[in-house]
Amino acid sequence: MTKNKAKLIIFTGPSGVGKGTILSDFFKKVDNNIVYSISNTTRNPRDGEINGMHYFFISKEEFEKLINENAFLEYANYSGNYYGTSKKFVDEKLKEGKSVLLEIELQGALQVMQKCPEAVTIFIKPPSFEELEKRLRGRHSESEEAIQKRLKAAKEELNNANKFHYVIENKIVDEAVLELIKIYNKETK
């Protein structure tokens, strides 16, 4: 029997593309040899988000202190808020033989890809830009200004999809989840 290969998996795509929905289903259907890396952020929690489960919600001052301590594998300022991945968490899980999935913004993904060229990289794209805008507006969680910032960022992000090993179109969630499971099994078994 072959041993599973612990891998760092980078998972990104524009805001509103459905990353969280895909991952929620994915983690219900795969083995426990993979863990989700919980990012730190300075943004406020959305309804239903729990500190320590969805993100570690910290102050801007605390985040900047961690930057100065070189505690992040990557970090980015996205739409006016910081997001970052703890080096310590990722290193510990990989040493335990567990794959680590990073759900991060494009800036952070590109940083990790430079530092960790062995990482498996996956980009999630919407079926169309119009559908992405519809999904963002359907959240009812942000101002028009914030939505416009995210749409502007999404255009740049979509132009970078070709830098990733895999691109999954999230037209139908169940199909996107199955495609992600196939990639995970191919890369770690």
Defining key terms:
single chain, 189 residues, alpha/beta, Rossmann fold, 7 helices, 9 strands, globular
Provide an overview of this structure.
It is a single chain. This protein has 189 residues and is α/β, with parallel strands linked by helices. The chain has a single domain (8-188), classed as Rossmann fold (3-Layer(aba) Sandwich), CATH 3.40.50. Helices cover 42% and strands 22% of the residues. It has a 5-stranded parallel sheet, sandwiched between helices. Strands 4-3-6-5 form a 4-stranded mixed sheet. β5 and β6 form a beta hairpin. The protein starts with 7 loop residues before the first strand and ends with a helix. 30% of the residues are buried.
Topology (SSEs and partners):
Elements: E1 8-12, H1 19-29, E2 34-37, E3 40-41, E4 56-57, H2 60-68, E5 72-78, E6 81-86, H3 87-95, E7 99-103, H4 106-115, E8 120-125, H5 129-138, H6 144-158, E9 166-169, H7 173-188
Parallel strand pairs: 1-7, 1-8, 2-7, 3-4, 8-9
Antiparallel strand pairs: 3-6, 5-6
